[in-house]
Amino acid sequence: MSLVLFCLKSEALCAVVDLTGFLLVSSFNLSDLLNLFLRKHGVLYFSTKSALGQTAAQEKQHTRMKVSSKLDSVKFDEISKNYEVVIGIETHVQLSTLTKAFCSCPYNYGAQPNTSVCPVCMGLPGALPVLNSKVIEYAVKVGLALNCRLSLSSKFDRKQYFYPDLPKGYQISQFDIPIALGGYLDVDLPVEFGGGHRKFGVTRVHMEEDAGKLLHTGNGNYSQENYYSFPIGIVDLNRAGVPLLEIVSEPDMRTGIEAAEYAAELQRLVRYLGVSNGNMQEGSLRCDVNISIRPIGQLEFGTKVEIKNLNSFSSMSRAIDFEISRQALLYSLGQADEIVQETRLWEEGAQKTVTMRKKEGLADYRYFPEPDLPAVNLSEEYVNEIRDSLPELPEMKRRRYENMGLSMQDVLFLTNDVNVAAFFDATIATGADVKLATNWIMGDIAAYMKNEKLSINDIKLTPQELGELIASIKSGTISGKIGKEILFELMAKGGTVEGLIKEKDLVQIVDPTEIEKIVDKVLANNPKQLEQYRGGKTKLQGFFAGQVMKETKGKANPGLLNKILLDRLNSKS
Amino acid sequence: MLSSAQTTPRLLRSPTTTTAAAAAALKCSSQILTTRKSLISRQTSAVDLAKSFLHRLRRTEPQLNSFLYVPPDEAVLKQAEDLDKKIKNNEELGPLAGVLVGIKDNICTYDMPSTAGSKLLENYRPPFDATAVRKLRECGAIVVGKTNLDEFGMGSTTEASAYQVTANPWDLSRVPGGSSGGSAAAVSARQCMVSLGSDTGGSVRQPASFCGVVGLKPTYGRVSRYGLVAYASSLDVIGCFGSSVADAGILLNSISGHDKNDATSSSREVPDYASQFLEIDDLESKPLKGLRVGVIRETLEDGVDLEVISSVRDAVSHLEELGCIVTEVSLPSFSLGLPAYYILASSESSSNLSRYDGVRYGNQVFGDELNSLYGDSRAQGFGSEVKMRILMGTYALSAGYYDAYYKRAQQVRTIIRNSFKEALDKNDILISPAAPSVAYKIGEKKNDPLAMYTGDVMTVNVNLAGLPALVLPCGFVEGESKGLPVGIQMIGAAFDEEKLLKIGHIFEQTLQGCSFVPPIVADEWTP
């Protein structure tokens, strides 16, 4: 089953490719030949004359031009004065279970197409789904973390629609009884965007399976294979059957920033819980945004538009602000009827949303209970066990850090990454001063990680040693400057503070007589500068201090040094 | 007590109760047990046995068309040779060693095509064996071929197969029943010893009745559905055909049990069904003393052929003479079963058949856009009965109709399940005919789907309630030279197959004067 199948629509030519080699066949009897060859080799393919659906490029040009050209003139402040914005978000979180939701195939992002498939996730006749119990565990964790009510008895349903990436013709999902309902998510907005705390409602959390992926070629979407000049649909079912949680928010967000922060908080949450890597680029966290605006005072809601293809929080925020402006402009031009219920794609390059497909009424998914799977029953004990095992969540951490006296900027930085927070917690557990630990982590450590593109788990420095470092500086064993030098060594190579101090003979000189000696020596060696100083050029104090530091390899206690230096400099004048 | 039949029975041979001793001639009616005995005693070899069955299969197949696929003789004989070597070396033999099995073609086999009777799966070869088939092979059974069926199991005559029409071995102008018509005909005509079928609304039991063989529909969840091409998942079960109750029971024994690949399979322990097939010598005079048998009143009323009624009433009298306490029970919800069944089965099938979209198997019809690719591939791939059920099911599940159809049918299902539960709390088994008529003519109901659906009235309730049921031949009505067999249906409580098999076996062993070997093979078949 390692082959990928594809095909093309051309009356005169057809080609069949697998990933290990490829074969090109010419024939006028395309369908027979393809069926024969492809089926024999287990390749999945479909072909149509036109590309699937309407693509962004096909969208009506005139609307787009008109709107985008005038967009800049619409001031955002004015919009918020005149319009009420309503944003709701549907988030799909891919769960990082070892195996798929209903079969024992592993899922590895980026694997060769169709190498992680079996009769179950390929939807072969006679194959049946069997639920991976980890999916329930993860769903319960997320439900509890989102302050939801859990359904102690829920079930799976089939959501039915046709698409080549959906091998069974239905998606196993949850419809009327989701596993978790009615929760909320606490968010602290970034200080640079004005800050503030928000509580966004969560309507529901339900379990479902992911679909496969379509890789288009022939129209440029799949660059690796575009030696075809006609559309070919390639189906990769590696992702089919991977467990997802769909988390639906209440329409509580009002700005792009709020929406992006809601999504970022969800990402933090699933990472804290260890149920997903939350990676947006890999599609482990996918947000679809629903957005409508209405002039303040208008009773009926505006038309809802969905935005997809949001690959980062910043594109989410920008896409929403663009869409708000677009809709506001149409209102202001008296063209509100051009806002239609549709799905729009965010185009990162052009920084705008474009029509992907228009929705003609409501899709009828003909949901009904999945007869192949028994009901999902949770016992109170099971739920309590999971509740007791939950880690400290971002919101709890933020409040705790806040109570330690840290600024919101510091709090947000430290809690953003669960591993950084853990590092911080472990550091202060050694008795290290909270503010000092924060400064080290947010300052030199963060800068180092950024430069070296490392995560906090990749650096060799341990929280114990950072605690030790802080203590050594505080006790005066080493100077802050030396501390900084040691820090880089610890991050790059590891080792202990104590060892490094010994090894490099870095213990700070705190003996005044010793410092006096060196100061005297420096003054003696620089008579010219001394004269200048005493002639009024007091700025030279820094020069002398530097010389002393140089002489002591930075080990002189700076306070002591300055005191003695000043004494000496001024005493003989 | 039942009043005796109102009409004069027109049986060609009436079944009569006999003393235990007089029935001794019928003992060892089990082909599986006989095969085992003769192989172990070296009276016959597995190869000779296989050859004789293959020979009969090849001879009768042109008239019957029971099989959609029969592997080359060598493939079958090779397995028999291997078995003979094992016997020679005194190696341990599986419980089904040398048993020749037919498999309904909607049950996946890795070494043979599995088409489910549909053009959409023409030449489709699954990469795996269904769990039931795997277990059979592990027990030593040899698969002799894939049997014909109504496309995806949707039909009651096997005429809806995309490939061929199977004839009833008792009368070649009649249908074998369906949808497991091929499996029933094959066992009836001794083309194989036993066979697997599937039963969604009666697809094992009705053809068993039409073909004069034993058909066993196990409790839902008793046998894994993994590898059974789904028709209606909440109703589908794999069932057993045999020429005796013992064979059906032994077959069930080998395929039952929990399967980690089927979340709806039960983890209840499997009793040893085979242990109870006592030889007739061991029977007491009233072997079924004290067993409570409830005859379902609604199944012996209008709409059921009089000859069928009288045959079943005679069989009930027979049970009484064996010591059963017979009462009549009423299940007022019985008639609701048929509409509820057709709504639920169609709804689930409309979903289960969505996967046949032309992308992975079946002929892909090239389209200008995706919807026409799907539409045309499916329009050309599915037969009309399947299309009708997909349409019905799609309608029943559509927004605005769901509550009126699917949801109400589920409510009816609950009522039916409860009424059966209540009746079975008071009775050990319930009795009804297996079908309202005997086998009818090919083509007779082809253009009258409602008439065909009505024929499922006896069986669908059992699927809705998820219960086990055993159908076994109990008599004949007039027909061609030898008459046409009538089947009686015994319904048991969930997971009480053991009791059904025990009663069925004793009934069968004490039924005198009926030989259920069809004319097409009567000359050469000696039980």
From TrEMBL, chain A:
Q: Which residues form the Asn/Gln amidotransferase domain?
A: 422-569
Q: Which InterPro entries match?
A: Asn/Gln-tRNA_amidoTrfase_suB/E, Asn/Gln-tRNA_Trfase_suB/E_cat, Asn/Gln_amidotransferase, Asn/Gln_tRNA_amidoTrase-B-like, GatB, GatB_Yqey_C_2, Gln-tRNA_amidoTrfase_suB_CS, Gln_synth/guanido_kin_cat_dom
EC supergroup of this enzyme? ligase
Q: What is its EC number?
A: 6.3.5.-
Q: Catalytic activity, per the record?
A: L-glutamyl-tRNA(Gln) + L-glutamine + ATP + H2O = L-glutaminyl-tRNA(Gln) + L-glutamate + ADP + phosphate + H(+)
Q: Name one Pfam family in it.
A: GatB_N
Q: Which residues form a coiled coil?
A: none
List keywords of the entry alphabetically: ATP-binding, Chloroplast, Ligase, Mitochondrion, Nucleotide-binding, Plastid, Protein biosynthesis
Localization of this protein: Mitochondrion; Plastid, Chloroplast
- Protein function: Allows the formation of correctly charged Gln-tRNA(Gln) through the transamidation of misacylated Glu-tRNA(Gln) in chloroplasts and mitochondria. The reaction takes place in the presence of glutamine and ATP through an activated gamma-phospho-Glu-tRNA(Gln).
Q: Family, per the entry?
A: Belongs to the GatB/GatE family. GatB subfamily.
Quaternary structure per UniProt?
Answer: Subunit of the heterotrimeric GatCAB amidotransferase (AdT) complex, composed of A, B and C subunits.
Protein name stated in the entry: Glutamyl-tRNA(Gln) amidotransferase subunit B, chloroplastic/mitochondrial
From TrEMBL, chain B:
Q: Keyword annotations for this protein?
A: ATP-binding, Chloroplast, Ligase, Mitochondrion, Nucleotide-binding, Plastid, Protein biosynthesis
Species this protein is from: Penstemon davidsonii
Subcellular location, record wording:
Mitochondrion; Plastid, Chloroplast stroma
List the catalytic activities from the record.
Answer: L-glutamyl-tRNA(Gln) + L-glutamine + ATP + H2O = L-glutaminyl-tRNA(Gln) + L-glutamate + ADP + phosphate + H(+)
- Name listed for the protein in its UniProt record: Glutamyl-tRNA(Gln) amidotransferase subunit A, chloroplastic/mitochondrial
List, for all copies, the residue spans of the domain called Amidase. Answer: 49-501
Q: Which Pfam families match?
A: Amidase
Q: Where is the active site?
A: K104, S179, S203
Q: Which Gene3D superfamilies match?
A: Amidase signature (AS) domain
- Do you know which PROSITE patterns this protein is assigned to? AMIDASES
> What are its E.C. numbers?
6.3.5.7
Family from the record: Belongs to the amidase family. GatA subfamily.
Q: How does it assemble?
A: Subunit of the heterotrimeric GatCAB amidotransferase (AdT) complex, composed of A, B and C subunits.
NCBIfam families given for it?
A: gatA
Summary of the function given for this chain in its UniProt record: Allows the formation of correctly charged Gln-tRNA(Gln) through the transamidation of misacylated Glu-tRNA(Gln) in chloroplasts and mitochondria. The reaction takes place in the presence of glutamine and ATP through an activated gamma-phospho-Glu-tRNA(Gln).
Q: What else is known?
A: This protein may be expected to contain an N-terminal transit peptide but none has been predicted.
